[in-house]
Amino acid sequence: MNDIAIRVEKLSKQYSIGTSKYRNDTLRDQLADGLKYLFRRNRQPRQCEESFWALKDVSFEIKQGEIVGIIGHNGAGKSTLLKILSRITEPTVGVGEIYGRVGSLLEVGTGFHPDLTGRENIYLNGAIIGMKKDEIRRCFDSIVAFAEIDKFVDMPVKRYSSGMYVRLGFSVAAHLEPEILLVDEVLSVGDAAFQKKCLGKIDDAAKGGRTVIFISHNMTAINSLCKRVIWVNSGEIVEDGPSTEIVTRYLAKSVKGMDLCEEVWDDVGGAPGNDMVRFHSVRVRRQDGRLSDPLTMQTPFQVEVECWNLVPGARLHITLHLYTTEGVIAFTTASLNGNHPMPAGLFRSVCSFPGDLLNSGPHRFVVLVVKDASSVIYSHESRVSFDILDVRERQGAYFGREPGVVQPVLKWTTEYLGEDQELKPLVRNVRQAF
Questions:
Q1: Does the domain spanning 4-101+178-255 belong to CATH 2.40.110.20?
Q2: Is the pTM of this model over 0.70?
Q3: Four-CA torsion 160, 166, 167, 171, nearest 10 degrees
């Protein structure tokens, strides 16, 4: 028995840039091109100046029940691939074969008519994406409840807020019961609660044995939902393999060069400082020494500060103020190495940060040199910055960023203490209610 759900062989898609003689992919493109031709003064078609390949020689297979994530930068070709698989556009070269009923969550709300009510648009949009009338009728109450528009279902959708519009669009598409589900980055809109419900719905589809292709920039969701990841760049497949390995390498390349991991001053006279102390370097590095890998929430790392002490016998120590991107001080830490007199020369202070401490997001810090454990003699706002990435696999249905400046892993225990006699009537009433 063939267990292949999707087979793609040497798939390529070419587009023309900014000119007229090309094949229109949709009826809207044909109408727009015709109107432009009518109003053009000389009515001569413009010649093609340039073309580019959105996809180039892409090949892979996905088995039935497999959940595959597709990652890559904006413009890498991810959405083009899903549009071809969804039969929205045709490939220039190659073949994409799908074995089973397909549901696509590409652009939620596509096909809604603004003058129709939510109720009417549910039937219209459901029919557009391939749902039968009996199927829509059976799922209607669930669609409305999921979208949370009970009071407004008979109101024209042109009066809906953008959030209500998106919720209804996703709810209709999510209640299609396909064998293969194609999900583009539809979760970049909506509030956290809505995103949680959407991801939970996708998770339910995956656990139900459906084949899922999931495009997202949320690496936590990719790692948690998918066991396999395809990394696409410039229309080509870079890597195809286990999600944890591919995501780590993708993030390492993505953040490389974006963060300033060190600043160094070789000239004492031109270094930040004063007559008592001068900075030589400030660095952030992983404790395992792997410079090519990104910092994640689980990665132990260290901050190294090197200073020249210019006053023999001075009692100095280093204090770090760690800031989040919002300018909030996450915490303060200091070396305080006995506050002994220090000879003149170069000193290095190293602060070690354990894994499972900081929350995800960009961070920076201010380095203070303190004399006699009381007086700040110099404060340096470091240009060094680093981004803590959240790529952990989660068990729940929410894959967004949790609030807070720290995210420590703490030990929890739960134990049963027995049933109180006074609770028995309440427990009985709850059981009857369910």
A1: no
A2: no
A3: 120
